[in-house]
Design goal:
By secondary structure, the chain is of the alpha/beta class. Helix content is 32%, strand content 24%. The chain has ten helices and twelve strands. The radius of gyration is 21 Å and the shape is globular.
């Protein structure tokens, strides 16, 4: 019976949004250690893929002691680029020398990029951007052969040029706007923000901290149950250290004590077979395990 219930949920075309959010805190130095724009861009793509696969809601890039401010800016540019549907990039993203390596990025294919279809309803959901607005109509770019223009009386809220909307289309035909309640029920893509330090990054969110570190506890049954109890009430902030330093060491350099904050330190790769695990590798491992714990609890 339980297997049948889980199988039904696997058939959902657009993945559901979790009850509470996954917020990932990534140090900018994850790309500082890479040489050249192409390798930095590729690593950023790996981070984006991990966060898309496991339905992360927010990626917060913080400037750690081993990073330069330019690393924060670069990483955000790449993540903003990859999260944007390809047909909107020329409109929303200006030409930039930091983007010259984007050809190495893997496709993200999150639902906002038109990669999921509501086939049972015989329409496709697309992200679009408002490009023109007049007294009686608005026009949108949605990656079709021509822009879509509709009467303003179809709008359910005030929209301005540059705003992102989600629409239903059938072929090249506009059907309707997607309502807010529907949008809130499903996962579309992550947002990207930046912080000047780890401390600033953690202060932004009213969330419970899970610190990824080799010094942490293993995800046994007791810890998994505790995480589930917390996640039932609060967002989870999943915090990763730099290639050289754990989060508590970064906090110490910033002159504050991470251990004074309520948190759980977790080790998601016990008995590792390599000398060190790279930050983006820890990201995949940790998110996969947390996703599985929450999925099996039927929180999805």
């Amino acid at each position: 019976m339980r297997e049948q219930e889980i199988s039904k949920n696997l058939l959902i075309k657009i993945p559901p949004r979790r009850r509470n959010r996954f917020i990932v805190h990534i140090p900018a130095s994850v790309i500082s250690v890479e040489k050249g724009v192409f390798k930095k861009t590729f690593v950023a793509g790996l981070i984006a893929r991990a966060c898309g696969i496991f339905r992360v809601d927010i990626i917060d890039i913080y400037k750690d002691p081993d990073a330069e401010s330019e690393d924060v800016i670069f990483l955000k540019k790449i993540l903003d680029y990859i999260r944007t549907p390809h047909y909107l990039r020329k409109i929303l993203i200006p030409l930039d020398k930091d983007l010259r390596g984007v050809g190495v990025l893997p496709p993200l294919t999150t639902p906002n990029q038109g990669s999921f279809e509501e086939t049972s309803k015989n329409y496709e959901i697309r992200e679009a951007v408002i490009i023109k607005k007049s007294r009686d109509k608005i026009c949108m770019e949605a990656g079709l052969s021509d822009k879509i223009c509709v009467k303003r009386d179809k709008l359910r809220k005030k929209l301005d040029v540059g705003d992102i909307v989600y629409i239903k289309i059938r072929g090249e035909e506009f059907i309707d706007f997607i309502d807010e309640d529907f949008l809130k029920r499903y996962y579309w893509v992550f947002d990207v923000s930046t912080s000047d330090s780890l401390r600033d990054s953690l202060r932004k969110y009213d969330s419970y901290l899970l610190i990824s570190t080799r010094k942490g506890v293993y995800l046994d049954e007791e810890i998994s149950r505790k995480i589930l109890e917390i996640f039932d009430k609060k967002d989870l902030s999943i915090v990763f250290g730099s290639p050289e330093k754990d989060p508590d060491e970064i906090a110490e350099i910033e002159k504050w004590d991470l251990n004074k904050l309520i948190h759980i330190s977790i080790n998601t790769a016990p008995l590792q077979g390599v000398r060190s695990i790279r930050t983006y590798e820890a990201l995949y491992i940790t998110l996969a395990l947390l996703n599985n714990i929450i999925f099996l609890s039927k929180s999805f």
